Amino acid sequence: MADHRTEISSLGEFGLIEHLTKNIELRNASTIVGVGDDAAVIDHFGKQTVITTDLLIENIHFDLIYTPLKHLGYKSVVVNLSDVYAMNATPTQITMSLGISNRFSLEALDEFYEGVYAACEKYSIDLVGGDTSSSQKGFIISVTAIGEVEPDKFVQRSTAKKGDLLCCSGDLGAAYIGLVFLEREKKIFLENPNIRPDLEGEKYVIGRMLKPEARKDIVEFFEKAQIVPTSMMDISDGLSSEILHICKQSHLGVVLYEEKIPIAEETRNAAFKFELDPTMSAMNGGEDYELIFTVAQSDYDKLVLNEQISVIGYMTESEKGKKIYTKGGNQFDIIAQGWNSLK
Amino acid sequence: MADHRTEISSLGEFGLIEHLTKNIELRNASTIVGVGDDAAVIDHFGKQTVITTDLLIENIHFDLIYTPLKHLGYKSVVVNLSDVYAMNATPTQITMSLGISNRFSLEALDEFYEGVYAACEKYSIDLVGGDTSSSQKGFIISVTAIGEVEPDKFVQRSTAKKGDLLCCSGDLGAAYIGLVFLEREKKIFLENPNIRPDLEGEKYVIGRMLKPEARKDIVEFFEKAQIVPTSMMDISDGLSSEILHICKQSHLGVVLYEEKIPIAEETRNAAFKFELDPTMSAMNGGEDYELIFTVAQSDYDKLVLNEQISVIGYMTESEKGKKIYTKGGNQFDIIAQGWNSLK
């Protein structure tokens, strides 16, 4: 954080908004009016508009003790974009509302926005509006993302078919292991502030937790390979929870192979160190922001060479249940034990 | 509030979402996919999409001691719709994200949503998505509204012209007087919980505070009368603040006539009782959610017969400043003293 501290209240609400938005560059031709009016105007002739929103609350969704503000700004945007890609759509605009406690300086807020703008640049997104107010307790972030998709190309959760292949992108379980590591370091730090955490060894899992990316590349690959998944969603609550959503909404069962679940070497090593089961981290950990999707078997040839995609199972009729076949040769019902933010 | 108390945590996040969304009816043909997926899909062929968002935080934007939850749900929607109408657009969809503290029962949340759905019904809006999580401290509401407008019919704040008439809808200052009254009653109640507040006499100003309406009718009137305002915004921070926004963004000055500012008889009476200046309430009070707009002088004949519209001044060149001409014959600079939520 920068050394100089400017009280946010010294700018006033409108001064603050001007300060935060003065460097915005618009990247999409569809953005007709951006920030600075009652509402943004977006032109979507011939496309369908996709919209999604997330609310992030301090100490529920993030912990500022180990979350750099720039990463938090970046992640706040990315988790919303991930939902747009999960519709097979392209995100184009976001709005960002903040509730800011007065322990935040302007410099701290600038750091947060650095991350926001970095994500906007990386994903070619326009920030088109928002709302800023004070918060007595903690930092509150609300992001809404808008995207566009060709009519009839959007992909829902409810449209998987029996026999479809179940696939996921990237690798799973890392973000949860990263969280466990950060929580452990936090505890050590709070007990003895002189011990500096050694984060080097766990860079991969920590990075996956603090600075996730949305799978733009996978949606672009679908376009190029002429694949339209039969269903899709992003993995925010854990593989189990998301598979059960697809099954429930598509009225299907599933067979999932434990050995096919992609888990990075770094994740396995870190899990081993913390005496955690890497499969359980993938199934119930969440926050990986990978895509889970189903495709027709006839699309198998089109995606088999993409190393970022794993086929992990297939859809069955509902009566066959939702099963995981373990490496040891057993089969169990898939149960969602994902993190419930309401408990 | 209902007698029975169901803990929200007993439903889990997805159970809660199902419970809250099970009765949603879609009203707009443009709503292709509503709640229940990663994102909503909205079809806007041949129209431009307008988007706006607001974040409402307990004890910053509302006080649950005197705000019925149903009214709060209603108002949360209406204040966003007001921003869409202020673009001369028609709102069509909203998303609603909530951070809920565990002192809320399911019944309390249902009451809140009753108000949300009442507003959706009244304004023909589809609720198409959201996000629900717990909040350790206080109730947090984030609403995003989407609307549509014919290309080139949207109205910004920056496009007023010199000589244009400055107009506003309805009457002003009531919501602020209502707030003062409610704050006074709260203080009396906290000092002596046996004294029941007598709200009957101030029904009008209290109603304007707790259950505002957005001026759909004015935007419909513009369409019918073939008026396109040259600039427009809604009055959320107070007349002074909004006039200064239009002047700044349009690079103009203004002359405002105090005697032309519309103030209801009930507001004057209540202001008198509380020893408040009704003009100051209109200028600096805020939360009236009326529209302020400018029109070409040639449109005067088209709107003069509409009793819901008052001509309150006219736009001048920037060098002439921003002036209010008082009833007493003086002139002063208009200064924004509106409520600053960041102080």
Task: Write a structural description.
- Two copies of one chain form a homodimer.
- Chain A folds into two domains: 8-149, PurM-like, N-terminal domain (60s Ribosomal Protein L30, Chain: A); 165-333, Alpha-Beta Complex (Phosphoribosyl-aminoimidazole Synthetase, Chain A, domain 2), CATH 3.90.650.
- Chain A is globular.
- Chain A has helices spanning 12-21, 69-85, 106-122, 174-191, 203-210, 216-225, 239-250, 265-273, 278-284, 300-303; strands spanning 31-33, 40-43, 48-57, 90-100, 126-134, 140-149, 165-169, 231-234, 252-257, 291-295, 309-317, 322-325, 331-333.
- Chain A has a seven-stranded mixed sheet, with helices on both faces. In chain A, strands 3-6-4-5 form a four-stranded mixed sheet. A two-stranded antiparallel ribbon of chain A has the order 1-2.
- Chain A is α+β, with helices and mostly antiparallel strands.
- In chain A, strand 4, helix 3 (106-122) and strand 5 form a beta-alpha-beta unit.
- At the A-B interface, helix 1, strand 2, strand 3, strand 4 and strand 5 of A face helix 1, strand 2, strand 3, strand 4 and strand 5 of B.
- Strand 3 (48-57) of chain A pairs antiparallel with strand 2 of chain B, so a sheet runs across the interface.
Keyword list:
homodimer, 343 residues, 60s Ribosomal Protein L30, Chain: A, Phosphoribosyl-aminoimidazole Synthetase, Chain A, domain 2, 2 domains, 10 helices, 13 strands, disordered C terminus
Please give the alpha-carbon distance between the first and last residues of chain A: 33 Å
Q: What's the assembly state of these chains?
A: homodimer
Instruction: Indicate the CATH topology of the largest domain in chain A.
Output: Phosphoribosyl-aminoimidazole Synthetase, Chain A, domain 2
Structural class of chain A: alpha+beta
- The H/E string of chain A reads HEEEHEHEEEHHHEHEHHEHEEE
Q: Determine the mean pLDDT of chain A.
A: 90
CA-based gyration radius of chain A: 21 Å
Greatest interface by residues involved = A-B, 73 and 73 residues
CATH architecture of the largest domain in chain A: Alpha-Beta Complex
The level-1 CATH class of the largest domain in chain A: Alpha Beta
Please give the number of β-strands of chain A: 13
DSSP helix count of chain A? 10
Q: CATH superfamily name of the largest domain in chain A?
A: PurM-like C-terminal domain
Query: What does the main sheet of chain A amount to?
Result: 7 strands, mixed
What is the total number of structural domains of chain A? 2
CA-based shape of chain A: globular
- Which strand order do you get reading across the main beta sheet of chain A? 8-10-7-11-9-12-13
User: Unreliable runs of chain A, pLDDT <50, ≥5 residues?
Assistant: 339-343
Helical content of chain A (DSSP H or I, runs of 4+): 25-40%
Strand content of chain A: 15-25%
